[in-house]
Amino acid sequence: MLQIKSFTFNPFMENTYVLYDESKEAVIFDPGCYEKHEQLELDRFIEEEGLIVKHLINTHCHIDHVLGNAYIKRKYKVPLYIHKNDLPVLKSVAAYAPNYGFAAYEEADADFYLSEKDKLKFGNTIMDILFVPGHAPGHLVFYHEPTGICIAGDTLFQGSIGRTDLPGGDHKTLINAIKQQMFTLPEETKVYPGHGPMTTIGIEKVHNPFVGKNARF
Predict the structure, then answer these.
(1) What sequence ranges are listed for the domain Metallo-beta-lactamase (predicted)?
(2) Is residue 216 part of a domain?
(3) How far is CA 176 from CA 82, 135, 159, 206, 217, in A?
C-alpha cells in the first residue's frame, strides 16, 4: 500500500513529500530542505522507516521546491527527474537565490526528463503523470489510482491555484490544464499540494473560487 509523509520546509512553507510502499522503495518529491535541521528531519524519517530512496522528482523547478536537490542527490545517490520545459526554470535559480536569502544554494543538474507519456515506477507502485502547465512551463502532477493520491505541486490548492505571474506562467493555460487534466480524476482523489493542507478534487470542483463551478475569478 502506498504511503505518504509530508514535511514543511523553508520560509516559503513548501511541502516536501516522501512516497513509499511495502517494498520500502521511496521517492522524494520537491525537496525544499535548505537548512541543516530540515535535512536531518528528512533523513531521520527515511532512516527510521528503513526506506531506500530510488528517485528524486521536481514537480516544477521554482526555488522553494529545489533547495534540497543537491543534498538529496549527494546523500542518496539518486537521479533528478524534471520535465524538459522546466530546465530553464531550474537553471535560473542560482542567479536569484541570494536575493531571497539563500546564499548557500547549490545547483543540481537534471539527469532525466519525464513527460505525460511516462509512468513513475518504484517498488510495487506505478503512478500516472499529468502535464499541467501554467504555474510553470513544465509542471507535472503525479497520480496513483489505487490509493487516490495526487502529488499536485503548485497547480491546485485548497481554495486556490498556483500563481501565474512568474516567468513562464500563464493564467488561462493553468485554468484549462486543471480542468482538462486534474478535474477528470475521481472526486475522492486526495490532492497533496506544494503549500498548505490536503484537499480533494471533489471539494475543489465545487468550492474553488478560480476553477470551481461557481468560480469568481
Answers:
(1) 13-195
(2) no
(3) 22, 12, 17, 16, 14
Reference 174, options 123, 129, 112, 217; nearest CA is: 217
CA distances from 197 to 6, 15, 71, 125 (A): 10, 9, 26, 24
Instruction: Report the alpha-carbon distance of residue 183 to residue 186 in Å, rounded.
Output: 8
Looking at 10-139, which runs of residues are DSSP E strands? 14-20, 25-29, 52-57, 80-82, 112-113, 119-122, 125-131
Residue at grid coordinates 493564467: 171
Query: Looking at the domain assignment, is residue 8 inside a domain?
Result: yes
Strand partners, 28: 18, 56
Enclosing domain of residue 20: 3-207
Contact 28, 18 (CB under 8 A): yes
Output DSSP code: residue 86. G
- pLDDT tens per residue across span 27-39: 999 999 999 999 9
Specify the CATH number for the domain of residue 52: 3.60.15.10
Q: Is the full-model pTM beyond 0.85?
A: yes
